[in-house]
Batch of 2 targets.
Target 1
Amino acid sequence: MNGQLLLQLVINGVIIGVLYGVVAMSFVLIYKSTQVVNFAQGEFLLIGAWVCWALLVKFGLPFWLGFLITLAFMFVFGVLLQVVVLRPMIGEPIISVIMLTIGLSIFFQAGLSWIFGEYVQPFPRVFDIEMVTIAGLNVQTAYLMSFVISLLIMVGFFAFFKYSRMGLAMRATAFDQQVAASLGISVHRVFALAWAISAVVSAVAGVTIGMINGVSSALSFIGIKVFPAAILGGLDSIIGAIIGGLIIGVLENVAQFVDGEWLHWGNLYNIAPFYVLVIILMIRPYGLFGTKDIERI
Amino acid sequence: MALSADSMRCGEFRTTYKADTTIFPTPMSRNFAIAGLIILLIVPQVFDAYFTNLLIQIGYYGIAALGLNILVGFTGQISLGHAAFFGFGAFASAWISNNFGIPVILAIPLAGLMTTAVGMVVGIPAARIKGLYLAIATLAAQFILEDFFNRADWFSGGSAGSLAPPLTLFGFSFDTDKSYFYIVLAFVLVMYLAGTNMLRSRDGRAFVAVRDHYLSAEIMGINLTKYRILAFGVSSFYAGVGGALFGHYLGFVSAEGITILLSIQFLAMIIIGGLGSVMGTLMGTAFMVLLPEVMDGTMKVVGGYLPGLERGVSYLKEMAIGLAIVLFLIFEPDGLAHRWKQIKAYWKLYPFSY
């Protein structure tokens, strides 16, 4: 038993967990406001990271400019995707919508691998990476930075939905589309905006992870990890998504510890979240904070 | 050409339920099916191994896809883990025939039964959850089973894979494309006829009732839990048999090809073919098997002018799969089977279609 290692892994888990939380949050945002399960969430991260990488490396733009252009690009991309591809699907059965986003995910994944290649590409050094010691534990500044960025996104999310007019409109639409529409809210615009915000937030997460680990198609696996996180927290709860992400992040690292110390299975790290997912679905399908489905006949 | 009055009816004249559920509505359609079968019997003798190989692929994928269509199209449940069952069938059949000395021809249905057991275990959550949650549960099952294939050395040979012996019957070894084609054809016939007949029975109607409105179905006395798990069982049986045929055809099974992408391809087959259509399943499978081949052919013609395209052909194939799913869902959500029906309906009243 190695207490120091365990503690270190838990800290890593919290840091990566917060990032999962951010992605899960943008996944839940789409589900809550448009009732679409986005299987292409991981590709949003990937697209954001690759676009930013291309702007920085191929075009040699300074980081702040490249980053802003990436965000603007993702905003337009999110709106276009909703308007062109997802709007015709309103009212279609759930399997069609799921398959549509899966189709999109394959399409983008293959397209990006074709354009940018299969290999990991490092990001240009934007911030200095060094080790700092906090309470006897070593933490990379890059991780610390990603932690701060994640928290900033969460605060921004909260403020947007709490105080802005558009945020209020989105909450109203999520609550009841017909009532919202009758009060003069453009539901179409809210849908498009939800996809745009989700794409932008995912892109920020993608760039952050890309700066730490380099960009490669492996990034999109985060989009799969989002499911355990979002289901654990409850599919329609933003707070739940953040907490679910944290739990999954810590769980992964603890699973790695258990695996390394006792089990020696090899990749419990990747599989453990899915075991948890199955257990949650059996016991409490609506998650920790989600609303229970009540069906009326 | 003298068409009999029965060749194609210009309206609905059926007066009994029996006539409504018959497999061949007219003698003409039955004759066409028999003629098609005879042509298929001749094909491997006339065409080359490449063409036969494509037909064999359509055969074993088609069997597995029919299983998925029974689950998704007829019972209305979503599965993102079909490839895992397909793979399980392949490994199980190789395992049985390698370790227990059971002839391959028996190992294939046995592997199907083993897969059924696994599928029913995976289907247990389906008794409680549906729709999106079920999709995610089966996604988890896909990853867990994939991990199992990579680790269970005793069963699947681990990451190295396992060898599947060729099918031998009365001393004759079906190890060429030409001979194996007949085995696959026989399995396809039996499985498709069995599937069609099951869907006409009480159980099949119960599946459709569960899909259309599960609460009404329950009120009418259909045991929801039983039929949801049964649908998973039947679907896994088809996947297992398809997988076993795949394994013995290639002679070697490894976990590498059994990924989530294959699961998605199975879903693409039934969506493109038509959810809830038996013959559509076969059309969709043919579409998905032939799509990469057609793209390869096009690349050979176009590739000379655009060398960049030729290098990216493997990515282009994947993109085409994604694009086909998206375009079909937006423009033809009922699939090729529906299109085929429209074509038939057009000719029914030709030249007075309106």
Target 2
Amino acid sequence: MKHPVSILRNPATRIWLLLMLATGLTWFLVEGHAVSAPIAATSAVLIGGIKARLVFMRYMELQHAPRVWRLLFEAWALVCVSFILLGYWLASS
Amino acid sequence: MPESIDLATPAMAAPRAGAGSRHERSARKLPGDSGVWLFITADTFAFGLFFLLFTIGRAEQPALYRESALALVPGIGVLNTMILLTSGWLMVLAVDAARHGDRRLLVQRLLLTMLVASGFAATKVYEYTTKVQAGITLLTNDFYMYYYVFTGIHFLHFLIGLAVLAVCLSKARRDTLDGHYLIWIESSASYWHMVDLLWIMLFPLLYLLR
């Protein structure tokens, strides 16, 4: 019987690190006041969309699913991020 | 000693490698039960509708929503996000242990998944308590109505997920780790990751649109 790969060598660990770093970056952008509030908010939503896609593809294994399922959830993330940002920018203008 | 499983069981039959040949394309499959995936799809799209309702509300009252969002503490949202991401990662490792028939690792990782996830419940209760003590309730304004309803429905999903993980743990201890168990844990993991990703979208929507 093959044993599971070690935690450090498991690809899921690299994805987890990436997701944690992305969350830290979001916090820095919003609380560190490194950029203006609209840029920070926009970045936070975009980063959220990328994180959601990573979870879909790598943790929920949609990268190995039939293409129609993958496209369905990729479209969901894209549409959600688009209308959230559109609403935000229209309200800010 | 870890218990071995029958590699010919349905859940183990599909290779996880990338696409390419006709055989590989035909081997593409969703993890777990397809009925669970229909539920996940319906739930995810329902939350998409919630996000749209919130966006429309925000476009109508941008100042109110901005001021209300400023009263939320992003640090708590970040902490909750990191807790769920870590719990999701541990769940992936638990499924990996189940696929390899390693009962000891599976039980350890499921326990860790639940232990880390319980931190989300603790911070959520703290957050709700401090908000209510500050006089901020469901009736304060439209922003907080959405805040309580959306995070409340999400929290309900989280609690259901914890219960499902408890069943996975119980079955991991006593049942044979065969194809049926793999369908169970893969379906549960898919649901658990859905709880995670819905929070990933809720967090910037509620806390960070300033």
